[in-house]
From TrEMBL:
Record has Transmembrane helix as a keyword: yes
Type 4 fimbrial biogenesis protein PilX N-terminal domain ranges (all copies): 19-69
InterPro entries in alphabetical order: PilX/PilW_C (IPR025205), PilX_N_dom (IPR025746)
PilX/PilW C-terminal domain ranges (all copies): 119-215
Name recorded for this polypeptide: Pilus assembly protein
Lineage, broadest ranks: Bacteria, Pseudomonadati, Pseudomonadota, Gammaproteobacteria, Lysobacterales
UniProt keyword terms in alphabetical order: Membrane, Transmembrane, Transmembrane helix
């Protein structure tokens, strides 16, 4: 009888020990679930940041490309005008057309010159180049001009007049092409070579894209 009583009294101890073990396992599983949930949250936030960065990069590239095409259209439209010409200044970027005559020894092409900085600077530059605000001139920095992709800055561009295009065997270092030997002569069309550089941002002003193209335009001599 005494042995049976001791056995009955001992059973609750094993029961409490089992309950403590189950509680420990539950806490471990809860900790693991918390870690997994936190990792999933971090992964989701990282994916959102990557997607946002990618979208900003796309916006910046499209913005710069838009300004590039706008400058090309401006060159072509100017060439089709009677006695039309682009205002390009020697060694300096003109304020009206944003055009500079290519002179590599001028200050604009130095290590800290306006042209060099515009083509190579990583961040956004103010007060260099001509702002492109679209065919409707509403710009792209407000919902009035762009309903779905508002930009931090309107894109800007500069144009460089690299000179007339001449056959490869004529003269020293120059831009060559398939134009005739009389290119640049009296009563002849000048086939000028222009280099266009455009810069654009996305919704984030720190995301900057720089694109460049070379454009040949016939102009009256």
């Amino acid at each position: 009888m005494l042995s049976r009583r001791l056995e009955i009294l001992a059973e609750p101890r094993f029961l409490h020990r089992d309950q403590g073990f189950v509680l420990l396992i539950a806490l471990i599983f809860l900790l693991l679930m918390s870690v997994l949930a936190f990792s999933a949250l971090q992964s989701s936030l990282l994916q959102e940041r990557i997607a946002g960065s990618f979208r900003n990069a796309q916006q910046a590239r499209m913005s710069a490309e838009t300004a590039l095409r706008g400058a090309e259209y401006k060159l072509w439209a100017t060439a089709t005008q009677t006695a039309g010409h682009l205002h390009c200044t020697d060694g300096l970027i003109s304020e009206d057309d944003g055009c500079v005559v290519y002179q590599p020894l001028s200050a604009s092409y130095g290590s800290n010159g306006a042209v060099t900085r515009f083509q190579s600077e990583q961040g956004w530059l103010a007060n260099i180049g001509v702002t492109y605000d679209g065919p409707s001139h509403r710009g792209y920095t407000s919902t009035q001009g762009q309903l779905t992709a508002v930009l931090a800055q309107n894109p800007v561009y500069i144009i460089e007049d690299l000179g007339t295009e001449r056959p490869p065997v004529i003269g020293g270092l120059h831009e060559s092409g398939n134009s005739g030997p009389n290119n640049g002569g009296a009563d002849q069309l000048d086939i000028h070579v222009f280099r266009i550089t455009a810069r654009g941002t996305g919704g984030n002003p720190n995301m900057v894209s720089v694109v460049q193209s070379t454009f040949d335009v016939p102009m009256t001599h």
